[in-house]
Design brief:
Elements lengths: L4 H45 L8 H8 L3 H13 L3 E4 L2 E4 L1 H24 L4 H11 L5 H10 L25 E2 L8 E7 L4 H9 L7 E7 L3 E6 L2 E6 H4 L2 E5 L11 E2 L9 E6 L5 H9 L7 E7 L8 E5 L2 E5 L1 H4 L2 E5 L5 H9 L3 H10 L2
Helix pairs in contact: 1-4, 2-3, 4-5, 4-6
Length: about 375
């Protein structure tokens, strides 16, 4: 049966309507979600900018959000109409409702970064981008449960403080590396994770929160420093993204650290610390297994498979198997053990006093 032209047109129009309505609904929902996320991003940025004079301006907010000034002004108007911000001249102030929402998004972001780094073992360079997406999907209940699961962490993997639910704002820890005195030992407590390209360059130099360092030389172009055995030169723009605090004597790690993965079988060493790269569950596991500062460790058995990986280590009277990629995070120092020649001499020329003590103890 051949359909008439008017009937064919009606069927085509009906099919187009059936297809178009869900698509249009999806597009509207995507637009609504994106607008909500943009508002939340703006509130979080305003909270992070703090109450410094001149910090919360439309131009600065536009730079943080990568928006045009016109789009930023429309966004500010929308937030003002919703009671989230107040505008006075060029200044933007968060209302109590806006600050509460901003605090929730910020907590969600930094706690999710902790989860990604500590539990999911996601590389540090990737966690900020992933947390930027997850922060908009976590409810207040989700954030509370996540905080409990992670053990109420005080800082995220970049060193940023994680505010409590009832706090009014956040403070950036430490002193910028560009202002740190030459020759004074320090520990990195925060690395700014934006822009991502700058953060990646800092990580490529082996610098992470917890890294111990000493500034050797400073100039207008950059800073030369000693960081856990390595000499690093940073351009001033990179150094400005790093915040440090004084390091204590008990944090010091030898300038040329030896890792447990490098220790030959049968040689005893003493643990002097764990790498700042190892965090969360792995760090807690290594400490629970006995690899704490001062512990005596000896490799006793290499696996016959996988090129000697894993290796069994004797620590605190127990044999513990570790893979090479785990052992390389444990810094150690050699103990003064007798040489092979000394051991052969003791075997062929036993101490007579020792024999006498043995006969006295066992008549």
């Amino acid at each position: 049966m051949e359909l008439s032209s008017p009937m064919t047109g009606a069927i085509v129009a009906l099919v187009a309507t059936v297809v178009a309505v869900p698509a249009l609904t999806w597009l509207r929902e995507q637009y609504r979600v994106r607008r909500r996320e943009t508002v939340e991003d703006a509130l979080k940025a305003l909270l992070e900018l703090g109450d410094r004079v001149g910090a919360r301006t439309p131009d600065l907010l536009a730079g943080r959000l990568h928006l045009s000034r016109r789009a930023t002004l429309r966004l500010i108007q929308t937030m003002s109409e919703r009671g989230l911000v107040r505008v006075a001249g060029e200044g933007i102030q968060l209302t109590p409702m806006g600050k509460a929402l901003a605090l929730h998004v910020l907590r969600a972001h930094r706690l999710w970064e902790c989860y990604l780094s500590d539990d999911a073992a996601v590389p540090l360079k990737d966690i900020h981008r992933l947390a930027e997406k997850a922060e908009h999907k976590l409810s207040p209940g989700d954030v509370r449960r996540l905080e409990v699961r992670m053990g109420y962490p005080s800082h995220d993997p970049h060193g940023d403080p994680i505010p409590r639910e009832d706090e009014a704002g956040v403070k950036r820890p430490g002193t910028p590396l560009t202002a740190w005195p030459v020759g004074q030992p320090a520990r990195i407590v925060h690395i700014e994770d934006e822009p991502e390209s700058v953060f990646a360059q800092i990580l490529a130099e082996g610098l992470t929160p917890g890294t111990l360092l000493t500034v050797i030389e400073r100039s207008a172009k950059g800073i030369r420093l000693q960081a856990e055995g390595n000499e690093v030169w940073l351009a001033a723009v990179l150094a400005a993204h790093i915040h440090v605090v004084p390091s204590s004597d008990d944090e010091a790690i030898p300038t040329a650290p030896l890792t447990l993965a490098e220790v030959p079988e049968g040689h005893q060493v003493q643990v002097v610390g764990l790498s700042s790269e190892v965090r969360g569950l792995l760090r807690r596991r290594l400490l629970d297994l006995g690899f704490t500062r001062g512990a005596i460790v000896e490799p006793v058995l290499h696996s016959a498979f996988g090129r000697g990986d894993p290796t069994a280590y004797r620590v605190r009277g127990t044999l513990i198997a570790l893979r090479r990629d785990q052992a390389r995070h444990i810094f150690v120092t050699p103990l003064n053990t007798p040489s092979e020649e000394e051991q052969r001499h003791e075997h062929t020329h036993p101490d007579p006093h020792e024999n006498a003590r043995a006969r006295h103890a066992h008549p």
